[in-house]
Amino acid sequence: MDFDEILAKCGNRHRYQYLLLGLYSLLMFVTSMHNFSQNVIGFVPDHWCYHKQLENRSFAQIEAIYNQFDNPSCTRLETIGPDYDGRNATVSGEQCDRWIYNYDFGFRSMNTELNWVCDEAYKAPVGQSFFFIGSMCGTLVFGVLGDKIGRIKAVILANLCGFLGDFSTIFTSSLSAFSTARFVSGLAVDANTYLMYILALEYLPPSLRNSSLSISMGVFYCLGMISSCGLAVLVGHWRIFLACSSLPLLLVILFYFLVQESAQWLVTRNDIDGAVRRLKRVAKMNRRKVSEIDFREFRNYCQINCTKKTPESNEKGDQFIDMFKTPHLRKTIILMLIVFTIVTVCYNTLARNVEGLGISPLIMFSLTALTLPPSGFIQADIQKRIGRKGSSVLSLLLTGLFTAASGIALSVSQNPSALLLISLTMASRLGLSICLGSTLLFSTELVPTCVRSRGLSVAHMAGAAASLLSPYILHLGTFYRAGPSIILCLLFLIGCYFCLLLPETENRKLPITLAEGEEFGRGERMFDFLRHPKPDKTEAETPLKETS
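The chain above was modelled as a monomer; its predicted structure follows.
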């Protein structure tokens, strides 16, 4: 009796699974506030150099005066004169050291309080780069820990790093202290969610994996992002915002008492007794009665099938590098890493670009968040109809073509309206969200359970490292307006092609060991997923083998 069969007897869509989805949704809400706190505290409103003669003028008047000069935000004036439009204003040779800020909804960001604008505007991006460097390190470290000490402990440690980094940022005022705090905060990014994603996936049946995870992610990630903007407006100051948004991360400590460690992972660690204990707790919570005979058959299956390793692997355990020792699994993992990295780069290039669109970044941030819930429902429906591989291929293809069309439209119009820019941005974000959700589920199912945490950590680390190119991709727009869109389109199409080379995971028994990973999808051709049979509409919880 394999794991899917024993899980069906213990209950694979009952109280424990719904508790798991509820906690996963809570984590999505909390971590979305953490992941985008860097953007919120770094928003820069319209600003101009302070002058005593401007104290009684409106923001519209101040803007009209400074718009006469090439660099209105950083130009210091010597005299302005009594004229309404400031036509007699003269430029000072001194640098600006004080600014007038037109705060968005009264929110005072870190950049405005520390005056990190103009000549010191580089400081915030430096801190943000350390945030992403921390993300690269964190995904690798916690990915290894997830396969060494367990998923739950690694999730808790990752979120504690996020809390420590965000809370310590409150007390920083120098670039070195700020960069250090953001590095610690960045350690939690991705690691604080994908480990819980893996854990939920390993306890859920295929139907709930398909719909519930993607919908939960879309809805609650959206709520977290909108709540971030609402919280920023409500408290009005970046330090108070960080304090309020970081404290909920401590709630993840409760997961240790509520969530069972992955039974599949325990089996790969040769802790079959521990796996049986967790399954018995799941059965008890689901009010299912499972006989000792069934657990004995599961033990026998694990002892026969899950311990077939070389003497060296028995001593050291499966390592991530072992996936590259066999040809078919090596090809699958390399292709998965390429596709995941491409999607991550495209997502980070567009998702965080909410300024310069002719609208308050707080409003734009909330508007783009509204695309997440429909993306979750659309993703779930597409995956139900054409499978994991089909949904990934289709979303990559269509998003790539739409991105190219958007770039052409922007290059044709020299001064596009704010409505056009907002519409294109939201449409692109919708497609990106579907791509990211489809690719995350597809990639997770491709990696064998024994190294799944480390495999996903390397994928996230590769994506974070490649995302350092995102600012440069956007910067190409200053030379050729359609340049970023063309590059992103090519990346999407390349990712679509490589995705076609991967095996389908829909309605398949997922690999647990490396040996099963080597055989998974062997002999499958590029377009076999188009005629892949649909899963049954009902998923009875019987001892029959359950596919995924």
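The CA atoms of residues 411 and 482 lie 5 Å apart.
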